[in-house]
Design brief:
The chain has about 210 residues and is α+β, with helices and mostly antiparallel strands. Helix content is about 35%, strand content about 15%. Helix 2 packs across helix 3.
Length: about 210
C-alpha cells in the first residue's frame, strides 16, 4: 500500500498538528456498497458489505480532535498514521474508558502507524515461532499509543502497558485492529493489477 502521495481531501473538522521525527524507527469514503433493504437477505448483504469495508484513504492534515496524543509521541515521516477509537461497550472491560466531547459513553483509543523492518522483527520474536501468534503480534507492534499514553513493552504495570490494553480490548476489537493491519500492509486490488500488468517483464533464457 503506497503511503507517500495521499490524494483524498483533508476532512473539514478541526484537527491537531502532528509532531514529526526523521528517525526511521520511530481515515475518505468507504468503498463498500451499503445499500439498504428489507428482510433477512438484505440484512445479510449489508453485513457482508460491512465486513468488506476498507480503511479510508490517507489525507493530508493533522490528527482528529478526539484523539489524545502523548506529549512525547513523534510521528515518522512517509508512513500512514492511523487513529482508532472503540466504544468501551465493544470491549471485554466496558467499565474502562474515557469520555469524548460530543460523544456518548466511554471510549478506548490507540494511535498506530505502519511497521518497519525492525518492528516486524520484534513482533516475530515475540511470536516465538508460533504461527498462531504471528498475526496478533504484528498487529500489536503497529500500536504506538493507547488511551493517550505511549506504549511500553517492558511489562511494567501502568497505563502504557500494551499487553494489558490488548487483553482488555476483547477479541471483537482485536479483530478490527488485525483487519486494519492487513489492509495497511497489503497492496490494494488496483495496485496489484498495476504491478502484475505493468511492472513485470519475463523472458526465457533458453
Amino acid at each position: 500500500m503506497t503511503t507517500d502521495e495521499p490524494t483524498a481531501e483533508a476532512p473539514a473538522e478541526e484537527e491537531q498538528e502532528l509532531a514529526y521525527t526523521d528517525d526511521e524507527q520511530a481515515i475518505g469514503a468507504p468503498t463498500a456498497d451499503l445499500r439498504e433493504g428489507e428482510g433477512d437477505t438484505a440484512e445479510e448483504e449489508k453485513g457482508a458489505n460491512l465486513m468488506d469495508m476498507d480503511v479510508p484513504q490517507a489525507t493530508q492534515g493533522g490528527a482528529p480532535k478526539w484523539v489524545v496524543i502523548p506529549p512525547d509521541l513523534k510521528f515518522p515521516r512517509g508512513r500512514q498514521a492511523i487513529f482508532l477509537r472503540f466504544r468501551s461497550e465493544w470491549t471485554d472491560t466496558p467499565w474502562i474508558g474515557d469520555p469524548i466531547e460530543g460523544e456518548t459513553g466511554k471510549w478506548r483509543q490507540c494511535i498506530c502507524w505502519t511497521i518497519s523492518i525492525g518492528d516486524k522483527t520484534l513482533g516475530l520474536n515475540r511470536a516465538k515461532q508460533d504461527p498462531n501468534r504471528v498475526a496478533d503480534e504484528l498487529a500489536k507492534q503497529m500500536i504506538r499509543s493507547i488511551d493517550g499514553h505511549t506504549v511500553n513493552w517492558d511489562g511494567t504495570p501502568g497505563s502504557g502497558n500494551v499487553e494489558q490494553w490488548w487483553a482488555q480490548m476483547g477479541e471483537r476489537s482485536r479483530m478490527l485492529i488485525s483487519k486494519v493491519f492487513l489492509q495497511l500492509h497489503m497492496m490494494k486490488r488496483e495496485e496489484l493489477r498495476d504491478f502484475f500488468e505493468n511492472c513485470i517483464a519475463v523472458r526465457s533464457t533458453g
